[in-house]
User: What shape does this take?
Amino acid sequence: MIVTVEEESKQLETALGGRYRKVRMGGAVVYVFSQPVPKPMIDRIHNATVVDISKPYQLASRDFLKETSIVRIGKAEFGGRAIQVCAGPCAVEGKEQLLESAQAVKEAGATVLRGGAFKPRTSPYAFQGLGEEGLKILREVSDAVGIPVVTEATSPDQVPLVEEYADAIQIGARNMQNFELLKAAGRSGKPVVLKRGGGATLEEWLLAAEYIILEGNWEVVLCERGIRGFDPSTRNVLDLAGMSLVKRLTHLPVIADPSHATGRRDLIVPTARAAVAAGADGLMIEVHPRPDEALSDGAQSLDIPTFGEAMAEVSKIARAVGRE
Amino acid sequence: MIVTVEEESKQLETALGGRYRKVRMGGAVVYVFSQPVPKPMIDRIHNATVVDISKPYQLASRDFLKETSIVRIGKAEFGGRAIQVCAGPCAVEGKEQLLESAQAVKEAGATVLRGGAFKPRTSPYAFQGLGEEGLKILREVSDAVGIPVVTEATSPDQVPLVEEYADAIQIGARNMQNFELLKAAGRSGKPVVLKRGGGATLEEWLLAAEYIILEGNWEVVLCERGIRGFDPSTRNVLDLAGMSLVKRLTHLPVIADPSHATGRRDLIVPTARAAVAAGADGLMIEVHPRPDEALSDGAQSLDIPTFGEAMAEVSKIARAVGRE
Amino acid sequence: MIVTVEEESKQLETALGGRYRKVRMGGAVVYVFSQPVPKPMIDRIHNATVVDISKPYQLASRDFLKETSIVRIGKAEFGGRAIQVCAGPCAVEGKEQLLESAQAVKEAGATVLRGGAFKPRTSPYAFQGLGEEGLKILREVSDAVGIPVVTEATSPDQVPLVEEYADAIQIGARNMQNFELLKAAGRSGKPVVLKRGGGATLEEWLLAAEYIILEGNWEVVLCERGIRGFDPSTRNVLDLAGMSLVKRLTHLPVIADPSHATGRRDLIVPTARAAVAAGADGLMIEVHPRPDEALSDGAQSLDIPTFGEAMAEVSKIARAVGRE
Amino acid sequence: MIVTVEEESKQLETALGGRYRKVRMGGAVVYVFSQPVPKPMIDRIHNATVVDISKPYQLASRDFLKETSIVRIGKAEFGGRAIQVCAGPCAVEGKEQLLESAQAVKEAGATVLRGGAFKPRTSPYAFQGLGEEGLKILREVSDAVGIPVVTEATSPDQVPLVEEYADAIQIGARNMQNFELLKAAGRSGKPVVLKRGGGATLEEWLLAAEYIILEGNWEVVLCERGIRGFDPSTRNVLDLAGMSLVKRLTHLPVIADPSHATGRRDLIVPTARAAVAAGADGLMIEVHPRPDEALSDGAQSLDIPTFGEAMAEVSKIARAVGRE
Assistant: This one.
C-alpha cells in the first residue's frame, strides 16, 4: 500500500505507526507499506492518496503511477513518443576510437553515447576497461560531440566517480542483484539504466528497480538484454514478450539491447526492429568503427555504416507504431 | 554434400557407391550424403550440381537453396511477399463455433483457418478434441467459407485422415521429434506446418524438417511457438532472435505463434508485431468467438474484434518492412 | 477423486452419473473423476473407498496408493528393496555385440538388459537401429543369457511388435508426450519404462504416466534422464532433487539414467551413486564392449570392466541406504 | 600457461616480458599467462616448473595442481577425507537463536556455523539482516561454543568487517560475478566460500574463483546451490553432475547446499546423501530451532532433531564412499 501526501506530516507518521518506508517524489512524500495495513489506521489518514498494490514491488508498479514515467538522460527523454537509441562501443579503448564512434552514432540519430570504462568481464584475463581514465575520455568526448553518455558502475564505491563524469549510470546484468550497488545508485543524483539479469524473472527485475527508487531516485530505465537459454546458437534469448509484459507492470521506461541478447551482428537489425514493434521505448546497440579490432564484444558490434542502416530500419518501425 | 541431377541415372548411382539418400525435387533428383565424399568420386560426377554443406541438416539448409521456398496452403503463399495469417480456435468445438470463427477471421484478413480435431493435451482428463468428427467440420466450414485449413496429426496413422480432410498437416511442439510422425507427414501429399519443440535447439528443429523432406515432401513451414523458460510470467519464451536466425539457416518459410508462446491474450498484439518486424513470413493466432467459454486455451485466444485490431497493427508493420 | 469398489456395479455407475473414467486394478474397479463431485452424489456411494486427490494426476498419485508399487520386468522387481539395474548398449548392432554385452552385464549384477532396435535419432542421417531384426536378436540373447529385456517403441504401431519380443516397453524422453504412443503402451500387456522429457515438469511426467494407467496398465516405471540446461559441459542436467520429489508424489517406482543425463562416461559412476543415495529404485546404464566403436552414444557408454566397478560402487551406497 | 619458481626473479620477469599476472603461492611465485607464450621465451626459463593449461581458468585448474587443495576454516579441513558440514540459520536473528542453533549443530556433528548478518534479499521490504550487530553475535557465539563461523559479505566495503568477525567469507550466488567483491575477498586473509550463480556455467564459476586466487587468496571452497530451471516444483535445480564434473576440473574443494538448491525441507536429507555420494567435500545446510518462525528461508530449514537424523544419514553415505 502506498500513501502519498503533499507535505511531510509528523501527525500522519505517528498515525501510521512507523511501519513504512518514506520516499520523496518531487515535492510530495510517499509512505510505502509492504505489509497489509489495518483498516482503522487507513481511516485515520486525511489529505492523502492511498493506493493498494497487490505486487511485491510497489513504487515501480503501474498500479501506483498509471502514466509511463519520463526519464531524461541529457536531453533524451526515455518513455516519451520518441525512440531513444544509446549507441557506442562496448568498451572505451581510447579517445580517438570513442570520438569517431560518438560523432558517427550521433550523426546516424543516436541520442545517448554508451561506452564502458569499468568492464565486468567473465575472465580476469580479459580487458578490464580503462577505469577513471576511460571516464574522463567519455566526458570529454560527450562534451565535444554534444551527446550525453551512459556508462557502467560495478561497485558502490565507483558510483560517485561515474556520477561525476557521466550523465547516467548503468547497472549491468551480472549486478542486477548487487543490492549495495543498487542502493548506491539510488542515492546518486543521476538516472540509472538497469539491465535485466540473465537468470532474473520480471518480478526480480522490478524489485531491483524498487531498491533504487526506495533510496529516492525515480529516474530508472529498464533494459532487457536476453536471458540464459539452452540453445548455443545465440548468446542469450531476447525475451521480447517479457519486455512487453514488463511495460504493462511498471511505469518505468523499458529499452532493449539486441547486441548482448543475440551476440551476433547479423541479428541486430531484425531484433532491434522487433523490439520497437513490441513496444520498447529505446534501444542500446554496440557500435565500433572497426568491430574486428574491438577489445571486447566485437562479434556483436555493428560497424558505422550498418548502424546507419539499422537506424533507418528502426525508424520505419517506430513510425508504424506511432512513434518517432 | 548434395548432388542434384536433371534425370535419375543408374550410372551416377553406381559411381556414388550407394552411400546416399535419394529424394525427388520437382523433376530433378537429389542425392544427399551425410558423410564426406572422397574427391575421386566427386570427380566422376558429370552434368550435376554439387553443393557442399557444413551443417548436419542439408536439404533444409539455405546453403542448398539460396531463395526462400514458397509453400502453398490453398492459395496462401508462405515465403512470398505477403504475410500469411493462420487463425481460428484452439480446438474445433462444433460446427457453429468454427463457422463463426472462420467467417470472422477471413473477413479480418486471415488466409488460413486453424483448428484442432486431435488435441494433444498434457492431462488425459482435458478435452481431447472431436477427432474425425472435428475433421469433417473443418472440411465443411473450409469449403463453405472459402479458406484453406490446417489441423494437427498426433500419430502416423492419423496422417492419411488429416490429409484427406485438411489442406495442411500441423505437427505440434510436443511431437517435433516424433520421428515416425515426421516420416508419415513426409510421405503425405500435403504441406506440413512444423512447430518448434519447447526444448528444441534450432539445429534439432531443422533436422526434424529434414526428416520430412527426405521422404519427398518439400512443403514445410516452420513455426516458432516459444521455448521453455524459468519465468512463470509467460507460458513460454518467444524466441524471435532464434526465429530470425533460423530464416538465415534455412530456405523454408518461418512463421510465429504468439498465442502459445506467451499464453496471454494481452501480449499477442505486441508480439505479433514484433514477429513480423523480425522477419516472420506469417503468424498463427488463436481466435475464439467467446474466449472465456473455450474448451481449451481460452486465456491466450483473442476475441474477434481484438483479432481485427491485431490484423490492422500487423499490417502497418508488414508495410514498414516492405511486405503486405 | 477416486472411487474404488470390489465389483463393477451398474447401480453405482448410474449414481455417479457417467462423469468418470473406469479402470480395472487387479480384481477391483476404479472410477476416476477429474472434476469435483457433488456431496450428495458421494453420499450415495456404498461399499467403496473414496479418496480425494488434489493433484491433476490421480491414479499415479501417492495420495491414492500409499505404498510404492512393485513393477516386475521378468524377475526383476522395481520398487522393492533391491536396486534394479538395466544395462546394455544404446543400440543393438548385431548378435555378437549384444550377447557379449548381455553376458557381461548379467555377470556384473545387472537384472535387465537394455538395447535399442528402433532408435529415435535427432538426425535422419544417424544410425536408425536394426528394427524388427534388432528385436529378434534381443529376444534370442535374452533367452540365451537368461535376463529380461527392455527396448523402445517410437510409435503406436511398433508397440505390438515390441510387446511380442521384449519383456518391457521403453518410451523415450522425446516421446514422453506422444500421447497416442502412451495410450498404445497402456493397452499392451507389458510393463512400461517411461522416461522424463528433457523439457518436462514433474507434473507433466506424472500426467504422461496417468495416460498409460488410464488404459489399464499399472506397470509403469519412471526414469529420470536429465533435463535441458544452459551449460554445455554436460549433455543434460540430472535432476536428482526432482527424482526424489517425484518419489514422494507417486507410488510408481523411479529409476535414473546417468548415461543420457550426463553424456560423459567419467560422470556415470558418481551420478549413479548419487541417484541411489537420493532414493532411486534402480538405474539404467549404457554399456558397450567397445564404446569407441559404438554406432551411437559411445561417449557416454561404460566398457565392461568399468561397469563392474560401477556396480561395486553402487552396491556400497545401496547398503548404506538400507537396500540391496 | 603457468610458470612457478621458488623465488621471485627480476631476471625471469624481464625474460617473460611483463605479459603475466604474478601471484604468491606459499613461498613460491607463480606467473600466469593467459595468452600463448612464444617458444623462445619459454626456452629462456630455468629453475622453474612450466605447466600448459588449455582452460580459460588456470590457477583454479586441476591441470595446475593435481591434488585437491585443503582449505581450513577454523579446524575444519575442506578437501580432506572428512566431510565438513556448515550448518546454522539462514539469518542471525538474535543471540539466543544463534546460540541454541550453534550448540545443537555442533553437537550433531557440524564443523562450521553459518548465519547471515548482511542478507541479500530479492525484495527491499524483506528482512535485511542485523548487519554489524549480527557479526558481533556470530563472533561471540562462535567463541562461546567453539565452532568456526562463515558469513556473507555483499559488497567490497563489507569485506574488512566480515574478515574481522568471521572465520570465512561467503560470496552468495547473486554476487558470483560481482567482480569487485571477488577481488576484495581475494585481498582478505580469510578463506572464501564461493557459491555458484543460479545462471552460471561451470566455466564462469571457475573464472570467478580465479579472480579471487589472482589476488593471492588460494583458500577458496566452491559451493553448488542449484541452477535456475523451468519446473516450479523445486526452488532451483541441484546440479550434482555439474558438481562432480567441477571436482575433476579444479583442485579446489567443492561442497553442496541442498537447502537453497531445493527450497524444500523434505528434500534436504535425500539430496544431502546424494551430494556426498557424488563426491562433495562437504555440505551447507540451513538449520533453525523453530523453522516456522524464521525471518527468512523457514520452508527450507531443518529443525534440530531432523538435522541430527540428516547427519546420521550422511554419515552412512560418507563411510560408503570411503570418507568420514
